[in-house]
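G., the chain you wanted modeled:
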Amino acid sequence: MDNLFKQFLTLRQMDYLIVNPDLSIKEFSPGVVRLAEDAASIVIGENVQSYFPELFGTEEIIDAIIQGDQDYFELNSMSRQIPDSELIYFNMYFLGVSIQGKHIPELMILFENVTQQMQLEQALVQETNESRLLLNAYSHSQQYIDRIITSMEDILIVTNQQGMIKKVNLATLSLLGYNQSDLINNPIFDFLEDDTALKEYLTESFLKKEDFLFKNLELSCKKKHGGLIILEFSISTLTTDTDDSLDFIYVGRDVTARKRAQQRIFTQYQISRILSEAANIHEAFLQILCSICESWGWVLGEVWMLEPFSADLLMLENELAQESAFKVKSINPKLQCLEVWAKPMIELSKIEKLYENITLDLNMGLPGQIWGSGFAQWSEDLMIDEGSPHHHIAQELGLQTAFGFPIQDGKDVLGVMAFFSQETTSPDPELMQTMTAIGSQLGQFIKRKLAEVALRYQQKQTERLLLNILPEPIANRLKQETKTIAEHFGQVTVLFADIVGFTQISSSLSPISLVNLLNELFSSFDRLTEKYGLEKIKTIGDAYMVVGGLPDPRSDHAIAIADMALDMQTAILEFNQTHHKAFSVRIGIHSGPVVAGVIGIKKFLYDLWGDTVNIASRMESHGLAGHIQISEDTYHLLPKKYVVVKRGLISIKGKGSMNTYFLLGRKGENYLAVIDKMVTLNEQQITAETQHLVEIIHNKLNDTSPVQAHKIDGSLPDLG
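Predicted structure as tokens:
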């Protein structure tokens, strides 16, 4: 091979190998050795296929080229792993040999190192494939994301940093009822009931100027055709290609049902708490109206009750006026507005004026319809029912929606609660069901409160009756102790009074008339016991017994009894004047020790025992009509302000002779007129000695000097 051709091959970085027709190697360039298969060197005369196994199968082609039948053949991109080196690629070009135009039967194989080209080509192919894969992946990913966004039930809204909406998904349009054109390029704030929380969040994220995530932000959103929906948003920021510009991605979930369920549970808890703590139903109603309105966004709340249930009864601040208040029947019952609560934006005076004198018949207005049906009801347009009393109220206050529920005990409707909104709101069956249960709870509460008041009333009546039978300290002890109650009192004063000639008088009156007269007379005596703090013990027929100094001991027991005895004489005179009767009372008084206690377990009675009781009874039975006879023991307990004259010794059964006295009056008072009236009414019973006594008293009362009992005693004859 000439040098010129070799230089050409060297410049092209190509090597050559010349093969004889028998495929033996004739000549080769040094660079061919590194391309041979597993050979450190190439030996002239060896078969070329032993060094280049790629030639197996190409014998016919090689022979055709050697014979001159074919000009050219090539094998491209052959590879060989060089020991301790990299993989190399080469092309093999097969050419015939001719010298000066004369064909020579030899084969020239040219070797071109194409490793660099192959690496570039492979890198290009790999990059192309990767780009294609990335493009396909992106395309699939975009489709996948679009499908996810389209199919997701959650709301997706994308806005810029100013809050202008850039993108929404179908769930947003479906849930809020808007068209895409209603939302795109409009501020998100326009669709929120209150945008304060969102604006605070946006301000915070703007100051940070970085990707930010805010979770569980609850916003109330306006629906296109009215009403609100509560959405819980997770908001994240995404930096856009524009410097310092952020997009906001809102992913929201409808939590209206969950929030309303929580509100219903909270409302039930609040009402249960109110009912347990409220002092009366009036207070409970006001708090319940306020709680429901503020929790559910109603601006006005009403309580309507049937007319028999007056405000005074529901206040439960008076004693129960009727034995069974909720059994009162009316020929034509009406609903009466008992309580109204309104949000501060509505003037209370305006509300009160609108509700003046409004009553509702059965099935009139929403409350009347609820009363008639016994079920909760919802009205989405109050302006339709022009005949309803609420139509005028709705016009004045701009009310749109209302709902109400019955307050009932079992099947009995006691009243109605109604609530009103200035927004158009769709019916909420779950809320109506909850409020129906609350209505039953309220009905039971009212019945329970009334039962409690009735029980307290009966307890007071029982205690009052017990106090009419027993002294208060004894009654209190009797309620706490089961053992017999008996006490010794060292110094008391006992009074017995008896109506003189009662048997003769009773024969001229009917039993009812007689009892009525006695009741009136003894009631006046009872009032005197209360006036002087004395204890009435009992009445037996026409006899009256009272004691001073128990159950609470007192030092002036004799004085209190003396004052009552004198007032009893005045009371019977006034009674006679009123009823044109001639009743006269005989009174006996004695002071000393007694035993007092309660006896029996049925129809028990607080009674007194001892000589003091017996002597007091004898003082009455041995006395004179119209006079107050006292024992010597009582006489010594009375101060000198009383007019007292000595009667002298009288015989007392079981006691022998005893000194007794007549209590005539108080010094400084004109008791002559009283005594004269007694004399006129009883002149048939008064003895000559009594006439003489009257004259002495007359003279002594006209004397300005103090009356001394011992001087009177010395001038009187023995009246025994």
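Confidence is low (pLDDT under 50) at residues 315-328, 680-686, 703-720.

Shout if anything looks off.
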